[in-house]
Amino acid sequence: MNRFESLSYLVSHLNVDLQNALDQRLKRYDLDIKLWPVLFSLWQEEGVTQTELSKRCDVANYTMTRLLDQLQQQQLITRQQDLDNRRAFNIFLTNNGKALEQDLIREAERVNELFLENLTVEEQAKFLTLINKINRFCD
Question: What is the C-alpha to C-alpha distance for residues 59 and 55, in angstroms, rounded to an integer?
Fold first, then answer.
């Protein structure tokens, strides 16, 4: 097998390039790529626990704590104690965190467009369908 037949090599290479491209755009907002999955998840559903957010972002709970500390310091999220479990905290976006959504989603869309521009519209749709199928996000 050569590197162009290795799924792990190809996906890893693409991931590094995608993250670097988005990271450069996020720096304009004083953010970095590590915070992107957290914000992206919270824009889709806030009020989830830190543990649930860790699962959704595929990071260890202690790593999520550090990421949330950073977001809280930047006044983008708040933590509210869960009413049913005193040890758990629900995570909510602040108005500042909500205000970033449109701009940052637009930045991510530009990165997507840049990386997908060599594919036809049909190939782009098929590629995303296949990547989701491999990741078991859909059937």
Answer: 7
